[in-house]
């Protein structure tokens, strides 16, 4: 299957930014603003308000005031309004939506309701009785979203920038092909210096690496590397023909570490990857790999789930 489509990727029109008003959520919003500027997209800020808590369920036997839920709702609305005004001050169209319910299913529902092209949220949020925990929320959203999800780490704070270099791990599956196409879509429509770095990590079983000086082991490594480079170059050709700069990396090793190292070496602005791939001797298992990369990547990660 060809990695590139001859048609121009569809533009990003609506970005849904989920917030729990934590510093990491604020960092995610800054990245959303940068993406919206490039695509002239609008941002919908959303917050999931926890359902009212009965007095008997109050934490640590603390008696909540009767109007606690209303106070919390009013405070959340004020924070959303302030964030919307901040986004608009950056020249980006913005609105907000506050609803009641568990965070992750509500974020997915709101993304559908607003026709979002991308969901942006932090990997960790504020903990405690009155706040969402965006660590678990982010994981559930990544697994359940029908659109790409951009996850932003605490370490990405104040590092938002125009996206010019994207690392795309590939196991040559349909999921990886979709990740490549989505990466093309993320680039600005007039980005002249856009660069993709296609990365394939091959990992031979320990039974082969334990053979020591037996000649079969080096030959297997060399064959795996050559096959990977050939496939990478095959995918790179149509991408280069479309005007993208494309680097290819084939490296033996534990896939998440190979991907993270490639992103650091490339100074990547983003990693884009599928949430599932193919398993086997020459292929990544992008399910567990994606989870590890989302947690530890040196830059934001865009995950793409192929529809069932």
List keywords for this structure.
single chain; 308 residues; Rossmann fold; 2 domains; 10-stranded mixed beta sheet; 10 strands; 41% helix; 19% strand
Structural overview:
This protein folds into 2 domains: 14-156, Rossmann fold (3-Layer(aba) Sandwich), CATH 3.40.50; 165-304, HUPs (Rossmann fold). Helix content is 41%, strand content 19%. The longest helix has 26 residues, at 216-241. Mean pLDDT is 83; it is low at 1-6, 126-134 and 277-286. It is α/β, with parallel strands linked by helices and 308 residues long. A 10-stranded mixed β-sheet has the order 3-2-1-4-5-10-9-6-7-8, sandwiched between helices.
Summary?
By secondary structure, the chain is α/β, with parallel strands linked by helices.
Task: Annotate the secondary structure layout.
Elements: E1 14-18, H1 23-39, E2 42-49, H2 68-89, E3 94-100, H3 103-113, E4 118-122, H4 134-144, E5 149-152, E6 165-169, H5 174-186, E7 195-202, H6 206-209, H7 216-241, E8 245-252, H8 255-266, E9 270-274, H9 286-296, E10 301-304
Parallel strand pairs: 1-2, 1-4, 2-3, 4-5, 6-7, 6-9, 7-8, 9-10
Antiparallel strand pairs: 5-10
Helix pairs in contact: 3-4, 8-9
Q: List the domain count as a whole number.
A: 2
Query: Which architecture name of the largest domain does CATH use?
Result: 3-Layer(aba) Sandwich
**SSE sequence, one letter per element:** EHEHEHEHEEHEHHEHEHE
Largest sheet: 10 strands, mixed
Strand content: 15-25%
- Uncertain runs: 1-6, 126-134, 277-286
Rg measurement, Å: 21 Å
């Amino acid at each position: 299957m060809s990695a590139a489509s001859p048609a121009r990727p569809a533009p990003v029109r609506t970005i849904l930014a989920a917030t729990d008003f934590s510093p990491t959520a604020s960092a995610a919003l800054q990245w959303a603003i940068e993406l919206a500027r490039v695509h002239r997209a609008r941002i919908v800020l959303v917050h999931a308000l926890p359902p009212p808590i009965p007095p008997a369920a109050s934490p640590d036997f603390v008696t909540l005031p009767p109007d606690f839920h209303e106070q919390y709702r009013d405070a959340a609305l004020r924070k959303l309004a302030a964030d919307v005004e901040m986004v608009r001050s950056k020249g980006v169209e913005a609105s907000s939506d506050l609803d009641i319910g568990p965070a992750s299913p509500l974020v997915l529902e709101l993304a559908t309701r607003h026709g979002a092209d991308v969901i942006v949220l932090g990997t960790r949020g504020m903990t405690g009785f009155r706040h969402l925990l965006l660590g678990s929320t982010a994981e559930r959203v990544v697994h359940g979203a029908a659109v790409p999800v951009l996850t932003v780490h605490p370490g990405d704070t104040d590092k938002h920038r125009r996206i010019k270099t994207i690392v795309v791990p590939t196991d040559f599956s349909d999921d990886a092909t979709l990740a490549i196409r989505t990466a093309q879509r993320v680039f600005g429509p007039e980005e002249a210096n856009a660069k993709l770095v296609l990365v394939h990590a091959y990992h031979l079983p320990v039974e082969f690496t334990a053979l020591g000086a037996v000649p079969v082991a080096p030959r297997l490594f060399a064959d795996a590397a050559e096959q990977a480079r050939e496939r990478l170059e095959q995918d790179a050709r149509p991408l280069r023909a479309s005007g993208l700069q494309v680097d290819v990396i084939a490296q033996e090793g534990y896939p998440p570490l190979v991907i993270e190292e490639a992103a650091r070496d490339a100074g990547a602005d983003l990693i884009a990857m599928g949430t599932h791939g193919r398993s086997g001797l020459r292929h990544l298992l992008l399910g567990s790999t994606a989870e590890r990369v989302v947690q530890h990547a040196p830059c934001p990660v865009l995950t793409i789930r192929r529809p069932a």
